[in-house]
User: Fold this.
Amino acid sequence: MEYTQAEDDIQAIRTYFEDLAESNAAQFDASTLSYDCLDLSSLSATQCKSCQMVTGVQNVYKFKDVEANVVEIHMALLRLPQFTTDILITFNNTLHISEGSSSQLAESSSSQAAWTHQDFLALVQSLVIVNESLFG
Assistant:
C-alpha cells in the first residue's frame, strides 16, 4: 500500500483500522482492544522501520443481514518509508455469528479452531521481503 502520512505510527494503524471498519459497515460498531509496537529485531523483514499492531472487535453486517456478526480483528502495519510503502496484514476471527446471519450454516459445518494472537504474531515475524524491486 502507499505509505500513509500520519502524525505517528499509532495514528497510521488507527487510520487503517478505521478504514476497515468503514468498509465492513462497522464504523459505529468498532472498538480497539490493544495497541502494540513490535521490536524490530523480532522481524524477519529487516527493511521495516516500525511495526505496529492492533487488536479490535467489529460488529460486521455480512451481505444484507439485519444482525451483525462479532469479528475480532488482528492487524499489523509494517512501515517502509524508504520505499514509501506500508504493508498491512490482517487476521479475522469470528467470535459470534448472529442467529439470522447468512453465515450461520457455514459455522455449523466448520470445526476449525480460531487463529490465536500467537499465530498472528508468528506470521508477522516470519514475513520476509526477498526482492525490494517489488516497491518500484
Notes: The helical segments are 9-23, 104-109, 117-126. The mean pLDDT is 85.
